[in-house]
Design goal:
With 224 residues, the chain is mostly helical. It has eleven helices and two strands, in the order H-H-H-H-H-H-H-H-H-H-H-E-E. It has a domain of 126 residues. 68% of the residues lie in helices and 2% in strands. Helix 2 runs antiparallel to helix 3 and helix 7 runs antiparallel to helix 10. It is elongated and about 70 Å long.
């Protein structure tokens, strides 16, 4: 056991030497950070980072602001405004993404229910229903949403989770990704790909070397 422990410590020392000998240019790090802000649509943060680091985004900054405004509208529950902004950004996006279009319509129905505008919600579902009838998955989502109308106290509804604010964030990410793809821009940040690659390398290639046990609070663990 002691030999295994000493071997692990030796590998750890060699790994640490290699780690410190690896040079990562600040410019490259800045590009990765900027890519994250751009991809996620954080226009204000991206602009401040541009001024502080001198790193320019590799996409038209105006489009970042438009995606940011769309994301904010969805997170605020103003779905109709978000739909208008998506159409203004690129009128082909919703036609090319029927699932996104349906999710926006469903979320709009949920927002009307949340505000107690029941009759408007019922009228709106008449417009949404034809899409649900053509797609079993859509129909299921529509039926679950309509169950909210059957309960005077929605907290007793088995599908009350549909009123969870976190669903706005999920929809905002879906809309943001569709808008990026329409610009031929990858919807996932480079940083997420690097983390996935690191995890794969740790598990498959560098399995005898120290590994990052927790990416949210990086700590290294020895492998014996």
């Amino acid at each position: 056991m002691n030999d295994d422990l000493n071997s692990a410590k030796h590998r750890y020392d060699l790994w640490k030497q290699d780690l410190h000998a690896t040079l990562i240019r600040k410019e490259d790090m800045n590009k990765i950070i900027m890519n994250y802000f751009v991809t996620e649509g954080f226009a204000e943060v991206a602009d401040k980072f541009r001024m502080e680091s001198g790193t320019n985004p590799d996409i038209d900054f105006q489009t970042i602001m438009e995606r940011d405004a769309t994301r904010q509208a969805i997170e605020d529950g103003d779905i109709e405004h978000a739909i208008e902004k998506i159409k203004a950004f690129n009128p082909k996006i919703l036609d090319a993404n029927p699932q996104l279009s349906f999710h926006l319509q469903i979320q709009n129905t949920i927002e009307l229910i949340r505000k107690g505008r029941i009759m408007e919600a019922l009228e709106f579902t008449k417009e949404v229903a034809p899409r649900g009838e053509k797609n079993p998955e859509f129909l299921g989502e529509l039926e679950r949403t309509l169950t909210l109308l059957a309960f005077e106290d929605v907290t007793q509804c088995p599908h009350r989770h549909l009123l969870d604010m976190s669903l706005r964030n999920i929809l905002a990410q879906e809309a943001n990704a569709a808008m990026l793809i329409s610009q031929n821009y990858h919807p996932d940040p480079i940083l997420s790909h690097l983390l996935k690659m690191l995890k794969w390398l740790q598990d498959v290639v560098l399995f005898r070397y120290p590994r990052v046990a927790d990416f949210t609070n990086p700590t290294y663990s020895l492998r014996i």
